[in-house]
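Hi,

I'm pasting everything inline rather than attaching a file, because the server keeps stripping attachments. The sequence lines come first, and each chain or strand is labelled.
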Amino acid sequence: MSKVKSPRLSRRNFIIGATAGTAAVGVGLYSLREKGVPPAPPPLPKVAAKKISYNDFSDIYREQWKWDKVVKGTHTRANCISACSWDVYVKDGIAWREEQAAIYEAPRPDVPDLNPRGCQKGACYTSLQLSEARVTHPMKRVGERGEGKWKRVSWNEALTDIADRLIDVAVEDGTECIIFDDGTTNAGYGPETAGDIRFQEAMQTTKIDSWGGVGDLPMGAIQTWGMYNCEGTADDWFRSDYIVIWVGNPVYTRIPEVHFMHEARYRGAKLVVIAPDMNASTVHADMWINIKPETDAALGLACAQVMIEEDLIDRDYVLQQTDLPMLVRKDKQRFLRHSDMKNGGRDNGVYLWDEKQGKAVLAPGCEGDGKGGRSTVLGKLKPALSGDFEVELADGSTVEVYTVYDRLVNQLNSEYRPEQSEKTTGINAKLIRRFAREMAAAPNAMIFASWGACKHYHSDLFQRAMILLMALTGNQGKPGSGVRIAAWWGMDGLDAVATLDLTLGEKLKMIPKAIRGLTPRDYENIFMDLSRKGANTPLMTFLYVHGGYKELWDKEELQDPALPHNLSHYMRESLDKDWMQVYPPEDRSPKAYIFTGVNPLRRWPASQVAREKFWPKLDLVVSVNFRMSTSTMYSDYVLPVAAYYEKYGIKYGQTYLPYIITSDKATEPLGDSKSDWEVFGLLSKRIAERAVERGISTVRGFKDQPLDLTKVYDHHTSGGKFNPEDPEDPIKLMDEIFANSPSVAANSGREALQMGAVPIVGPARPSLIYANYSDYEPTDTHWPHRDFYEKKVAWPTLTGRQQFMLDHPWYMDAGEDLPVHKDPPHAASKYPMRINGGHTRWSIHAIWRDHKMLLRLQRGEPVCFLSPDDCTPRGVENGDTVRIFNDLGSCEAMVKIAVSVRPGEVIMYHAWEPYQFKGWKGQQEPIAAPWKALHLAGGYSHLHYRMYYGGPSHAPRGAPCEVEKVS
Amino acid sequence: MANSKRQMAMVMDLNKCIGCQTCTVACKTLWTREEGMEAMHWNTVNTMPGAGTPKNWEDMGGGFTDAGAQLGEMPTTKAFGEAWNYNHKEVFYGGKGQSAHLEIQGEKPDWGPNWDEDEGAGEFPNGYFFYLPRICNHCTHPACKEACPRQAIEKREQDGIVVVNEERCRGYRFCMEACPYKKIYFNHQKKVSQKCIFCFPRLEQGVANACARQCPGRVRFVGYRDDQDAPIYKLVDKWKVAIPLHPEYGTDPNVFYVPPFGAARFDADGDLDEETPRIPDEYLISLFGKDVLSSLEILKAERARVQQGEKSELMDLLIAYKWKDMFGGFDTDPQTLKWT
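And the predicted assembly:
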């Protein structure tokens, strides 16, 4: 397949939309552009297999490798951040085997191509979908929740009963008391996700914003950039000269892509891993820096100290791209603001010192620069990076000012010299200096930070330090460079996934801005408006208010000792000021919980708390899933959905691969299972029917607005445009998605399904949720933040720059107005060991965890890795079972003794099902996963809640514990 | 090359292997899914140093010395790792609540094909490990073939692939004793020996082996050993960086490895010690023989050259800019085949 060139698409022509990717909330202001993509080339011609003349024993094997047909498939809803196209080989009506399609082309000859991708999990999904854990018939609980007593029921019975009970909740308590949760696992770009989004919108249920619940939100990136999308294509890593894997383990978690890092070594790049343990990614590293857990910010800041002291920084970049030259009032340690300088001035105008004019001038591109905060072009300005100055304020008084840079340097020189950080991090000061110098000297240096960088209590401080290094060395915004976490491909046609829309008034209000061209800040504001249009509730807030976690998370030992108040104080202020939203409101209680794909009783921290305190509040629990999960065991109804190869889908597209991956239907759904699109359509339909039959129409909906239940199905199907019971209906939706997405090279659903891998050909409309603010060039690798660096577009922060100082009062109270190192609350725990871990190579969350083909390639049961140093004194041997415990809870696991483990750590990789542990006490039981109160902050330019993007995010890492042998 | 006109071969680059086992699964789902084959993994990947698959296989003997064929042990199914089964039904539908959890049924195993994954050797922070994928070596002097009293093992004339003729095999298992790499399994259902067939049905259609074509790490090169334009010849004969595992076993394997270089070690103060390699030379020599040192020297020298901005054919080969170039012409896309 060759890449299809589209007419060059310029963003300026775009009329704004704000499709939320996984959330897919559309504004519906469609671009008037033509699709402009020629039809895809025909699939490769079939070649008649060679006739081998044979007639002996070896025919057995020749006969084995034959098939009837091949369709393109993928694992759309596994929540794997990779996307790989597979050929699904169908034999005798069964999806028999899969093999990577491997049809990707390199954008340029001097980078390796992207083939073949895939991993061991994708390579055995055909067997997983037929395994013991597959659910194939609707079931109703007949014993206690979690007991495992089920009755097989018809779809008719299940739908009617569920519909009636949801109607009861709606009548008595309003639809906000119905909690809908599709976690993150169930995200797709196509019909497999559209069904449940449409159901949730039509019913106006509370929607759990689950992202923070997987501890995935890069809050430090948001604090610095006002956004976090910062990845490009994986082949861009090949262009790096200095790759630093920092809080990540790509050898486990980026199986399809990590070869680019190893191939870069053969190009001459150096590969560095910073990790407390010698994880699998150190195997192919040139240098491993064995840092003490949770001291990463101290390492980063010491490197910054070295770079500044030895003048290794890129001055022009720093002056133009960062807030370091911004002026700070010495009396208050806050930015000098326009409102200080002018009566009635703006609070979001900040200043530079122009050396040429010898005076403070409004920084171009800052939010309040008076010109819309669009561009950071300095023009004739010559900003001072450092210096003591005096300015006259509006009231006639004078105040001394200096720069953020001066503040930072003072702090680095007094607290973060390598010899000081050596004490914190355990890394030899010489090694710190060497690392800093090498990074600064590399033409293109990058930090692969990954989602693991978000799961520590002070992860935001790690990230602020990492970004500081990339900014000081001028790397952010260049190929093979900068901090890399994630980004998504946009597709304008995703508007069709959802039903929500902006009002005509809201659209009209945007037109003047749209004519000038919308800025990243404008996109963010649109997204914020949309976030507020539904009952979205960040999971941490939900669990605190409704889930029974308040008592746990208010505990003294889980608070940051540097903060003047505990979590409850910040939560109160945040809710009272409407910085954080929670549905249902605090005075009402959740009554029904519908989840699909997500596995809350595995994933939520200390999930015994949810089981004991949240579950009893629920009159109805419904699980919609293809497999039996622990949470499904605790549900009242199980609605079985089709497996990935049994339905049409579009895999969500992270930018690692410049293609959108689709999944065709290889076989019909097994047993009575149905596609998600059909299941949720049927549920909406039955609710509307039962509402009519019961004579119920208007109930309390979102924000107590009236909602007509008899119209739910009408809303769900966009006024009858869709008919989810028609097996080919999903294609209709896919047609709409692809026909309206000029950024990808397919014009219809069928065409996209046939291609399997649909090339990206240009940029989509930007949206906060996915944009990395770089144009897409089909003839180049793709890297983030080019707009900010090359076009000098203002970053969506207060200062319009990569912003290292945050003068929000909460941050100043916490001592985090500048990046610092802080110990996590559990540093003082009485327990000697710390539970760490990460994603495993063996599963995507809990999917594949119980699959025997893969378990046979592990120890066959949950394991923890321990250092020999911790085993010997405890009399523990390799293969023994240990109890991992603290005051909160415990679990048991088999020990693997490994020299790679740092003494003091219990490494337990991700996502065993609780039902794989004795007594179903899963690995989350001892994990309180406290989270930072500061993440509830709002009311400050770029510090505020963003749906699916920025909010409180739990910190499971480093939970204190003890380990003892189970005799 | 004893009886074969040509010889198929494979090179595996250990500096790219990530231990993901996609090769193992690709092989499993293609060739060993039938009854009697549950416990077979014709392709294995082990963390080294380690006891591997079957457990302690390197101590089991077999192969040849100058004195001739060596007696070897027959590995047990337990040493390979059995095909454990689970109680899913009891847990999900047994009505037992939390008193039943998912666990292996029957005797609890103490070994499996990847039991010592990521454990390694040495001492923190200077421990070391790497991944070693293994298939049948399709040896030029196959000990298995020589040991078979039934002449049931054939070395194919056209490509040197070693296959068990299951019609002739009577299950005596002398081959399992004789193979020093312990890559032969016994099918207790069919009572025959079975092993890696180097995907000959795929090669016959111009399609590379499943383990190679499905390798996301882009570790494996495939092709005729004597194809001078293809990577195998260049890596093995021209650049001399790909060497066989345990050459002292005397069977002349046709699978070759590019040996691994580990990260820099720490000295006593926690600074880097770049003089001593993290993976001890003696250990690598114990696996690959003395040639491993020159192979590593060549790799390091070429890497140093590209770091200076020079070109290196060797580095370009190992990067494998074009994935299909790794397969020595066996690059047909299997989904395009139409069976008649």
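Residues 1-33 of chain A have pLDDT under 50 and may be disordered.

If the labels don't parse on your end, tell me and I'll reformat.
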